[in-house]
Amino acid sequence: MRRVLGLVLAVWVGLWILALSLGPVRAQGQQPIKVGALFILSGNFAGYGKSGSQGAQLAAEEINARGGVLGRPIQLVVVDDQGNPEVGVREARRLILQEKVDFLFGIDSSSVALAVAPLTDEYKIPLVVTHAATPTLTEQCRPYVFRTSNNARMDAWAAAALAATLPVKRWANIGPDYEFGRVSWQDFITRLKQLRPDVEVVSEQWPRFGSTDYASFITALMRARPEGVFSTLWAGDMVIFARQAKQFGFFNQVKYFVNPVGAALEVLAPLGKETPEGLLVSARYWFLYPNTERNRAFVEAYRKRFGEYPSYNAEEAYAGLHMLARAVEKAKSTQAEAVRRAFEADGGLVYDAPEGRKRMRPEDHQVFEGLVWGYTKHTPDYPFAILDRLRIIPANDTAYPTQCKR
Amino acid sequence: MDIGFYLLQLLTGLAYASTLFLLSVGLSLIFGAMGIVNFAHGSFYMLGAYLFYAFTRGQVEGFWGGLLSVLASGLVIGALVERLLIRPIYARPEEHQILLTYALLLILEDAVRFFFGAAYRSFPMPEAFSSPLFILGSPFPSYYLFLIGLAALFALLLWGFLYRTRLGVWIRAATQDREMLEALGVNVPLLYTAVFGLGIALAALGGAALLPLQAATPGMAVDAVISAFIVVVIGGLGSVWGALLGAVLIGLLQAFGILLLPEWAMVFPFGLMALVLLLRPWGLLGRPPAVRT
Amino acid sequence: MRLALLLAALALLGPFMSEYGLKLASEALILGLYAMAFNLLFRQAGLLSFGQAAFFGLGAYAMALLTQKAEWPFLATLPASLLVSALGALIIGFFSIRLTRIYFTMLTLAFAQLLYAIAHKWYAFTGGDNGITDLRPPGLLGESLPFYYLVLLAFALAVIFLAALEGSPFGYALRALRDNRARAEAVGIDSFRHLLLAFVISGGLSGLAGFLQGALQRSVFPDYLFWTRSAEAILSTILGGSGFFLGPAVGASAFLLLRVVVQAKTEYWPFFLGVLLLLMVLFFPRGLTGLALGLIKWPTEVRRDASGG
Questions:
Q1: Which residues touch A194 (CB under 8 Å, ≥6 apart)?
Q2: DSSP for A271-294?
Q3: Is residue B204 part of a domain?
Q4: Which residues of B, range 65-124, sit inside 8 Å of A by Cβ?
Q5: Is residue B289 in a domain?
Q6: Is A11 domain-assigned?
Q7: Model pTM?
Q8: Residue A122 φ/ψ region, left for φ over 0, alpha for ψ in the -120 to 50 degree band, beta for the rest
Q9: B117 vs C: CB within 8 A
Q10: B133-165 pLDDT per residue, tens
Q11: Which of 273-292 (C) contact B at CB < 8 A?
């Protein structure tokens, strides 16, 4: 028995040696700039990750078509982090140590972003986040973490800025019971009370993140007779909630339903013609705004390449990669310190994305930009609801104070 | 005293309970008759939802036909899975059976993702249910009443089946003493195939029936099986009435619990489950396991 | 002893491994430790626990909270992690051991999920789903090679301890309880105390694994307590072969290696794992170790008996 076990163990050790000695061959010469992108490609939020990776891909292709960055092509390595922080850390490590990427990119899930962030300090690899929205990420003030998309606090402040202009005094909330839902509501109501001290909260509902039945929450909410309801239900939760709430006549009773992530195409598309009209929603990027040459060209190129309209995650990834490329060009290097200085210099790097002008705040590496909101409306031109009566919230209205210093 | 509201809340609780019952009853049945903990139960529920969408292509006219097709498909798929994968491991220790169903969960999840993609699938509300009922002045979706009715109907049908037909008697006998049943000449493996098929068919039908009020999402299987476990553990593994009771308790707990403690909605099901396990581990309507020598 | 040779080999390999290899090897050893802790209950005592994640998570959170909030030195939190997870096992075991078979499994699962829900909701204390990050041990242990040796040391001590346990009267008592509880009790073995002790030991070792994992991954999240974490211990054990002493450790390495290699090539890792598991259960129930033995056509030896009672 012992002999056999020893043999088996020898094989085991041998396997390890073999596996660990394998690694990517370092090609000499025209070395590409490798960008390791982590997105959620499986599970309930796979749609978002898919959009993100597609947007990044389009950007990489465009950059390479015009000669790359510093004369080197961008090579995108996309991995599935499954929305799981440990998988994220493991894959990030693999990207850094095996694939030898120069940058980490993307990340949909806030917990994955927070788990990967310490690695940027450990390995001096910059991370450019294009989706994960927890304000905590940038409030940690890490030198090599950058976020080119807006975060949940900006969304909440924009919502509050809008809400302050509405004829609403009685507010309620229904949000997913996890950090994103909780902090968004906290930020929203705190900011709203600063702008409109006369508002009151009449109900708060906290269904489990991933709930499939909202009936009891809907009726409890309706009983409190709110005039306005704030919500950060997103993805499948929002689709399900919208359908069920509509059946209860929720949207007839509640005058204003405000959701900063409700205009995601991942939500509007499945709802199709069933989307209630008049929902006041935003999604960090809306493909029909602004009506500029730049945006139209992007939408057209994306549609041609992928056969669908770009959702916000696609545009954010697209813009994020372009912005990173610009930083590297400005730094004339891929070294973390040089790139950081490039992002921070001159009051913060500026990039004109399809959605508008992005400027990175040097203190916390958070990009600020105008945010577009609108009321859902059906038109014959599209199979899903589009945004009408657009309201643009300028960057200044969402520029919350940061604790970081530079 | 706002009677109208409390009645409404009661109904929403029962509505949620109905969705839980349709999801869980098959799990309880399978465990009761075969002793198998089917980790893939939520996966068949998910498959039912996606198949319903595929059969009807999202066209509302196909509603009734779609439901029937899913029920039939569930029976066939369940029977096949049982015959090919589960039968070979009857005699194995339970962890092998658990692992097998867990493997099925993994496979089905990716299979669905591969064939249907990552987008959420919905189904429009059938015309018959598109106008709400008014309960003391407040609108209540009639589809929820349909679901409550469907759940009640299935509970009754299952009860009738298990207690009034010979096949049902055999199934109940199998939960108590399989060897004796075989000794009496009953073809137990065939019985098992039938039971498994039935359980899966119920799960698939549940998934399909819920689609007009929910959505088919790629990750719904894991969530569903956890909910099903909670219901079945509370009600009693192996008891159909237990599944109903468990579902009703959870539904009502959510409906009224959030009026008192809205912060804790997420914890209610786990809390109740832990409580039941501590006080009556075999579930409220379950039977204490027979001591085998 | 062969075991000593293996450990020495793993130690000697250290300086030759790449940074990435060291991380992977550390993770494999930690998972192996966790799986071996599970198998103590499973193989020796015949208990299928689906709640090991609870103790794994408790150990991890103890380390995380003490280093972040109370600013304890890293190594000082080790005894605390062991204590907290063992205590958790004592409490959970006290309620669970009374039950048998599927009900035991269900209750352990329920407790783990309850702990998960608490960790998830208690933002102020645990950070909720934002977790606790920046858990890199300061100084030497923050480097890959020294940390690898720490993990190897922990693994070695745990394995030696478990081996000793197996050959001890306690081990014999456990196996007697597993094979025929009524008979064992009839000869005077207190089933409750023995099983509870096994549960506590298993919990403590799982907590040790969690402690190490948190430091390795630089962060701790409520995920550590989720039931899929319990499933990892079970999967590794079955993959490697629960009937053999080091089977779980072999299975853990195989599981990890496979996951890393497959995930690098495709996003359909769950499908791959599912098919693998299916094949294992249907055709190779004795795991990889059993498979290897079958191939070498060595005479079969101690195989796990079917659980009785």
A1: A160
A2: HGGGSPTT-EEE-S--TT-S--HH
A3: yes
A4: 110, 113, 118-122, 124
A5: no
A6: no
A7: 0.90
A8: alpha
A9: no
A10: 888 788 899 999 999 999 999 999 988 888 888
A11: 273-278, 280-282, 285
